[in-house]
Write a structure and sequence with these properties.
The chain is an alpha/beta fold. The mean pLDDT is 96. 41% of the residues lie in helices and 14% in strands. Helix 3 packs across helix 10 and helix 5 crosses helix 9. It is built from 13 helices and 14 strands. The site of pyridoxal-5'-phosphate has 13 residues, from helix 5. Belongs to the class-I pyridoxal-phosphate-dependent aminotransferase family.
Length: 397
């Protein structure tokens, strides 16, 4: 429509939304569909956190709070970052947001002018591109494949830096690949960043608790990186709180202040009683988080065992997150059921229409070779879904 801004029309409908809608449409027609598209924990929020929210509501936390969040929560976040991550941000350098997604938005709007470039490490979470474009920035993709363990080598990243580059946006553990950067890999990346004084890192650490092998390292702890790192995190994945919408960023004071100004412009502050519940979550123990991680680990191992029986694909065992990202590129271009599986979209459409399995095409993540399956699903759903996947791939081979 001529009424719409160029900025909104430039944003593509997320591939994941398209696939979920298609799965719902087929289900409404009476088909049995297994959906492994979801990017959220299939667990309930722990009871103690739910109780804290109810108590806060009863206690009158129903009014506007300060834009960057309640001081006690900012203090609890600074303490968490200090104790768990070794990051030395003060409470005044923390901004509480409506989910990590808004933390990313606040950060990018705080940094990016029209035409500025932000490097994203592909495959990457689709929303990054939309946020950067909305802010008037340019998305510069640096690709990696399964042969790189889905981690772009530092030389490749260095080659993409121009005088207009404002930031490198990274995500470890990574949605969709499950890749986790080691300390040595982060050191190499930090060296690239340090060579460019006007460059900063936006580190999305939302999956930090879902690591099965190795350890999660915050790049902001490395030498010379504290003053140029914006750390993004939130409670959605770690505490099974996706619908509560609570996240945060931590950054050097001038950036945190600018991010807070962005947030004050778009939305006043995160929900008041949810912020009080977040204090309880962060100050409480991590038993529930650890139990969820161990459940994801068992599922990951079960999924990998099933994928081993699937011909034609190559899959990295994900060291983190609740996603697997098989490379199906050897199968693209094949003809089956009267259609050509020209790209990952066509592959996923066929998987859904012919075998009743919903997955997300790599194209949704800036990747032309892979498909994403989520194992944030019940054992029964996973078993059924993987049987469908295996049958589909056997039919193709
Ligand atoms: N970052 C990544 C990599 C994600 O996968 C997601 C959610 O899928 C988010 C951020 C957003 O999380 P939140 O619910 O805190 O906005």
């Amino acid at each position: 429509s001529a009424l719409l801004s160029a900025r909104t029309t430039a944003i593509e409908e997320a591939g994941i939304i398209r696939m979920s809608q298609k799965a719902r449409d087929l289900a409404a027609e009476g088909r049995t569909i297994v959906s492994l598209t979801l990017g959220e924990p299939d667990f309930d929020t722990p009871a103690a956190i739910r109780k804290a929210a109810i108590e806060a509501m009863e206690a009158g936390y129903t009014h506007y709070g300060p834009v960057p969040g309640y001081p006690e929560l900012r203090e609890a976040i600074a303490e968490k970052l200090r104790v768990e991550n070794g990051l030395a941000y003060g409470a005044g350098e923390v901004v509480v947001t409506n989910g990590a997604k808004q933390a990313l938005t606040d950060a990018i709007y705080a940094l990016v002018d029209e035409g500025d470039e932000v490097i994203v490490l592909a495959p990457y979470w689709a929303s990054y591109a939309g946020i950067i474009k909305m802010a008037g920035g340019r998305v510069v993709e640096v690709a990696s494949t399964i042969d790189d363990d889905f981690k772009a080598p530092p030389e490749r990243i260095a080659d993409a830096i121009t005088p207009r580059t404002k930031a490198i946006l990274m995500n470890s553990p990574c949605n969709p690949s499950g890749a986790v950067y080691s300390r040595a890999e982060l050191e190499a990346l930090a060296e690239v960043v340090r060579a460019h004084p006007h460059l900063c890192i936006i580190a999305d650490e939302i999956y930090e608790y879902i690591v099965f092998e190795g350890e999660h390292v915050s790049i902001g702890t490395l030498e010379g990186m504290a003053e140029r790192t914006i750390t993004i995190n939130g409670l959605s994945k770690s505490f099974a709180m996706t619908g509560w919408r609570l996240g945060y960023l931590a950054a050097p004071a001038p950036i945190a202040k600018a991010a807070s100004k962005v947030q004050g412009t778009f939305t006043s502050a995160a929900n008041s009683f949810v912020q009080r519940a977040a204090i309880a979550a962060l100050k409480g123990d991590r038993t529930a988080c650890e139990e969820m991680r161990e459940t994801y680990r068992k599922r990951r191992d079960a999924v990998m065992a099933r994928l081993a029986a699937c011909p034609g694909i190559e899959t990295m065992t994900p060291p983190g997150t609740f996603y697997v990202f098989p490379d199906v590129s050897a199968l693209l271009g094949r003809e089956i059921d009267g259609r050509v599986l020209a790209d990952t979209d066509a592959f996923c459409d066929w998987l859904l229409e012919a075998h009743g399995l919903a997955t997300v095409p790599g194209s949704a993540f800036g990747d032309a070779r892979c498909v994403r399956l989520s194992f944030a699903a019940s054992d029964a759903q996973l078993d059924d879904g993987l049987s469908r996947f295996e049958a589909a791939l056997k039919a193709l081979s």
